[in-house]
Structure formats: C-alpha cells, structure tokens
Amino acid sequence: QVQVVESGGDLVQAGGSLRLSCAASGSTFSSYAIGWYRQAPGQQRELVGTISRSGRTNYVDSVKGRFTISRDNAKNTAYLQMNSLKPEDTAVYYCNLGLYPGYWGQGTQVTVSS
Predict the structure, then answer these.
(1) pLDDT at 1
(2) d(Cα 21, Cα 111) in Å, to the nearest integer?
(3) Cα distance between residue 82 and residue 86, in whole Å
(4) How far apart are CA 106 and CA 86, in angstroms?
(5) What is the DSSP secondary structure assignment for residue 15, as one 8-state letter?
(6) For a pLDDT cut of 90, what percent of the chain falls above it?
(7) Dist. CA 48–CA 55, nearest whole Å
(8) Looking at residue 26, what is its pLDDT?
(9) Is the pLDDT of residue 25 over 90?
(10) Is the peptide bond before 101 cis (omega within 30 degrees of 0)?
C-alpha cells in the first residue's frame, strides 16, 4: 500500500519561510513524478509545482521565485521550500505521488499572518 504523508506546516508571519516534507512509503519513490498542490479556504485545489523523475521542476507564476521543489530519492522524500510567504499562501498543502491521478497525502496546514 502506497502511503504519502506531508509535514512541516505551521503558522508564520508574512515574509517568513517554511519547508514542507512529503514522505512516501510502499512504493518505488524514484519512479514517480511529484506534485505539490494547495487548497485555500473556500477555494479549489490548485497546482503549486511539480518535479519530474529526473528532477526538473516547474511552478505556477504566483510562487515562481519564492518556492522551490526538490527531492531526495534516498530518503523517499520530496520537499517544498517556501520563502517570502504571503497571506495569500495560506492553505492546506498536499503532495501527490505519481500524478494522473497519483497518490495523495492528508495535507498539512500553512497559515501566513499579515
């Protein structure tokens, strides 16, 4: 059984930083692309960015230059480094392993205060 667990969410002030982790088990981690998504209160879930099996990344414009996705296949873990956080980044952040549709974690709450 594939399991995906996000962690690292917290309450931070605007301008602060957080690093989220996405730990996977029960799978061959290196064989999966990974996506980070977020869902703000009352909003649809939206893509934040992806990292391919080879480590290539892409990001939506709203986070480009502030967020960085990485992966450590030896640790079966992907990361989302978030810098210069804004209140509009407040959301539950989700990791997806494999995409289309892939395996989802339970999410981790990020709250950015003004």
Answers:
(1) 84
(2) 16
(3) 10
(4) 23
(5) T
(6) 94
(7) 16
(8) 86
(9) yes
(10) yes
Q: CA–CA separation, 82 vs 5, rounded Å?
A: 18
Using CA atoms, how far apart are residues 25 and 19, in angstroms rounded to an integer? 20
pLDDT at 109: 98
Rounded Cα distance, 72 and 55, in Å: 10
- Integer-rounded Cα Rg, in Å, for the chain is 13
Sign, Cα dihedral of 58, 59, 60, 65: negative
CB atoms within 10 A of CB 112: 20
pLDDT tens, 80-98? 999 999 999 999 999 999 9
Residue 22: per-residue pLDDT:
98
Joined together, the tokens standing for residue 106 give 């339970």
Total residues found in the chain within this entry: 114
Contact 93, 37 (CB under 8 A): yes
Query: Does residue 6 contact residue 105 with C-beta atoms inside 8 Å?
Result: yes
* Nearest CA-CA partner of 92 in 38, 49, 43, 45: 38
